[in-house]
Amino acid sequence: MAAPIVESPRSGRISPQYRRSGGSRGNFEMFAWLFMRLSGVVLVVLIFVHLYMNLIDGEGIEGVDFGFVAGKWADPLWQVWDLVMLWLAMLHGTNGVRVIINDYAEKDSTRFWLKNVLYVSTVVIIVLGTLVIFTFDPCPVVNGVPHVADYCPAP
């Protein structure tokens, strides 16, 4: 009795004009794979310290408000901490979605546009998040009137 022949997955499903062109992509995929592993480990540490400091060491979820964030971001350590967490989370997630797009988008043009939308949205979110972290002013002056809260220094 001869063993049955198992055809490769998708062998008859994808039309030849939609098959991906071969070619080496160099070491990019290896570096992307390594980045996912390393950034995942760093993100676990960043996120658990973030959750501990915000929820357990503080007053719990009721204590997280505008004043809490203002006080936290007054310290450059927490600005850099949140910035690294933002950047790593966005790049880690973008790389994961890129892999999913590569796996499931069959047409080259579909892959191209999905990845372009992904990359543009990633850049926009990283830029806006970075601007928010570093330009955040908890004690703004609006129309010459300082909006002073209890956490702002006296004018």
UniProtKB/TrEMBL annotation:
Any GO CC annotation of this UniProt entry: membrane
Keywords, sorted A to Z: Heme, Iron, Membrane, Metal-binding, Transmembrane, Transmembrane helix
Record GO terms (molecular function): metal ion binding
SUPFAM superfamilies according to UniProt: Fumarate reductase respiratory complex transmembrane subunits
CDD domains: SQR_TypeA_SdhD_like
Descriptive protein name: Succinate dehydrogenase subunit D
Organism per entry: Arthrobacter subterraneus
Transmembrane segments: 30-53, 84-105, 117-136
UniProt superkingdom: Bacteria
Location of the protein in the cell: Membrane
Region (Disordered): 1-21
